[in-house]
Design brief:
The complex is a heterodimer of chains A (about 110) and B (about 120). Chain A has about 110 residues and is mainly β. Chain A has no helices and 11 strands. In chain A, strands 2, 4, 5, 9, 10 and 11 form a 6-stranded mixed beta sheet that branches. In chain A, strands 1-3-8-7-6 form a 5-stranded antiparallel beta sheet, with no helix packed on it. Chain A starts with a strand and ends with a strand. Chain B is an all-beta fold. Chain B contains no helices and 11 strands. In chain B, strands 2, 4, 5, 6, 9, 10 and 11 form a 7-stranded mixed beta sheet that branches. In chain B, strands 1-3-8-7 form a 4-stranded antiparallel beta sheet, with no helix packed on it. The model of chain B has no long low-confidence stretch (mean pLDDT about 95). The chains are: A mainly beta (about 110), B mainly beta (about 120). The interface between A and B is medium-sized, with 23 and 26 residues.
Chain lengths: ~110, ~120
């Protein structure tokens, strides 16, 4: 079993839809949770960064972490065609493992006009 | 100005050859990384260096040898290339300490194809 599981999709939604992306994990040492966005033929870029359980909002994006269920989510409101990309969840235990990120497989998202 | 730049972007080579990928960052970060992304899009850490010192060395074959001449550069040399080495190799950098060390800035990747 992989440490981080993420449904690869693909996910196709119409413009303006609310998108929900999810990851589950098995390593209870993970304390830092990130979402990276990767456009085709580009490197991943950090979208959201949260510590421990709770919600964080940034514009149209909301990240949720539920450590008791080992489950994290990313919500995208009013999705746009420019949001079409692969979304990767990532996690770190911190401490000596800062920077050592364990990634999910990524979910391919297409937002069509 | 590109923050993390890698060269070359594409490499196509034969099995058994040796190849190198170079990486440079102009962000002033102390820590640099090599990550490998396979055909199924899994990104996995290979190495990290902090100010030229090897910090993380995952279970990578010793055919892969990183080298950091200074904290702004991290190169990756691969000997005796195998078919399974075909992947996209990403260089990244981050601040050294604390939670900021999880904020990685990635390069655009170097796509290696071994024939």
């Amino acid at each position: 079993q992989k440490e981080v599981e993420q449904d690869p999709g693909p996910l196709s939604v119409p413009e303006g839809a609310i998108v929900s992306l999810n990851c589950t994990y098995s390593n209870s040492a993970f304390q830092y949770f990130m979402w990276y966005r990767q456009y085709s033929r580009k490197g991943p870029e950090l979208l959201m960064y949260t510590y421990s359980s709770g919600n964080k909002e940034d514009g149209r994006f909301t990240a949720q972490v539920d450590k008791s269920s080992k489950y994290i989510s990313l919500f995208i409101r009013d999705s746009q065609p420019s949001d079409s990309a692969t979304y990767l969840c990532a996690m770190s235990a911190g401490g000596t493992s800062y920077g050592k990120l364990t990634f999910g497989q990524g979910t391919i998202l297409t937002v069509h006009p | 100005d590109t923050a993390v730049s890698q060269t070359p972007k594409y490499l196509v080579t034969q099995m058994g050859n040796d190849k190198s990928i170079k990486c440079e960052q102009n962000l002033g970060h102390d820590t640099m990384y090599w990550y490998k992304q396979d055909s199924k899009k899994f990104l996995k850490i290979m190495f990290s260096y902090n100010n030229k010192e090897l910090i993380i060395n995952e279970t990578v074959p010793n055919r892969f040898s990183p080298k950091s001449p200074d904290k702004a550069h991290l190169n990756l040399h691969i000997n005796s290339l195998e078919l399974g080495d075909s992947a996209v190799y990403f260089c990244a950098s981050s601040p050294a300490q604390g939670r900021g060390a999880n904020v990685l800035t990635f390069g655009a990747g170097s796509r290696l194809t071994v024939l």
